[in-house]
Design brief:
The protein is an alpha+beta fold. Helices cover about 15% and strands about 45% of the residues. It folds into two domains: about 140 residues, Proliferating Cell Nuclear Antigen, CATH 3.70.10; about 55 residues. It has four helices and 14 strands. Helix 1 runs antiparallel to helix 3.
C-alpha cells in the first residue's frame, strides 16, 4: 500500500514551480523523496555524485498532507523535470493545487490537479517508483561548514544583476563577509563593475542536522 496526497497553495506552488524550472536546465529527470516531515529533490550527475539537492519542510510547502507506505511512510520516485515543470506552471494562477500518487492504466503517475477560471486542469505524469532504501544514494552531499552565511533578500534583485552583467563576462566574482556585505564583481580588459549589497543578516549554524534515510521496502 502506497498513498500520497497533498494540497499546495498559490504562494508555495510558485516556490516549487520556480525550483523545478531551474532543475529543468540541469537534467531531464529528478528524484523526489517524500516523508512525513519533508520533500527532498535531487539530481545525480553520475552514479556517485549528487549534482543538485533541495529539502523543504512539508509543513511550509503543503496543506492537508497525507502519506502512507509500508516503508515507514516514505516514498521515493523519479519524474521528468520538464513534465513536472509544465504541470506546476499551469496552476500558478489558481488558489490551490493538488498533488497525488495514482495509477493510470496500471502504471504509477503523479497527478497534478488544479482549477483556474472555472476550468479543471489535470496532468498525469509518469513516474518510476524506487525502493525507499535507495534514498542512501540521494542524500545531501557532504560539504565543509561554510565560513560565511548570509540571508539573501527576497525578490529578483540578485537575478537582475546577474542577467545584466552576464553579457559582459561569463564569470562573476562574489565576495561576502559575516558583517552582512556581499559584492558582485565583473571585469573586462577596460573596466571593472561592482554591485554592493549591505545590511544582510548573517546566519550562524549551531550543529549538524541529522540525516533521515528512511526504511527498506520489503
Amino acid at each position: 500500500t502506497m498513498r500520497f496526497k497533498a494540497k499546495i497553495g498559490q504562494a508555495s506552488l510558485g516556490v516549487l514551480s520556480g525550483l523545478i524550472s531551474i532543475l529543468e536546465k540541469v537534467s531531464q529527470v529528478c528524484v523526489i523523496y517524500l516523508t512525513e516531515s519533508s520533500m527532498r529533490i535531487s539530481i545525480k550527475e553520475s552514479q556517485d555524485d549528487i549534482q543538485v539537492f533541495s529539502e523543504i519542510s512539508q509543513e511550509r510547502l503543503f496543506t492537508d498532507y497525507r502519506i502512507e507506505s509500508l516503508s515507514n511512510n516514505c516514498i521515493l520516485l523519479e519524474v521528468g523535470t520538464a513534465n513536472l515543470g509544465r504541470a506546476l506552471a499551469s496552476g500558478r494562477r489558481a488558489p490551490a493545487c493538488q498533488l497525488k500518487l495514482a495509477k493510470r492504466g496500471g502504471r504509477p503517475c503523479l497527478a497534478v490537479e488544479t482549477r483556474a477560471l472555472e476550468v479543471d486542469i489535470a496532468h498525469d505524469l509518469p513516474v518510476k517508483l524506487l525502493r525507499p532504501g535507495d534514498v542512501r544514494f540521494h542524500l545531501a552531499p557532504e560539504v565543509p561548514r561554510p565560513q560565511v552565511q548570509l540571508e539573501l533578500p527576497r525578490g529578483r534583485s540578485f537575478r537582475t544583476v546577474i542577467d545584466r552583467v552576464k553579457g559582459i563576462n561569463q564569470h562573476v566574482y562574489i565576495d561576502a563577509d559575516m558583517s552582512g556585505t556581499i559584492t558582485f564583481r565583473v571585469q573586462t580588459d577596460n573596466a571593472v563593475i561592482k554591485t554592493f549589497y549591505s545590511n544582510l543578516t548573517p546566519r550562524f549554524e549551531t550543529g549538524d542536522e541529522e540525516e533521515d534515510e528512511g526504511g527498506e521496502e520489503e
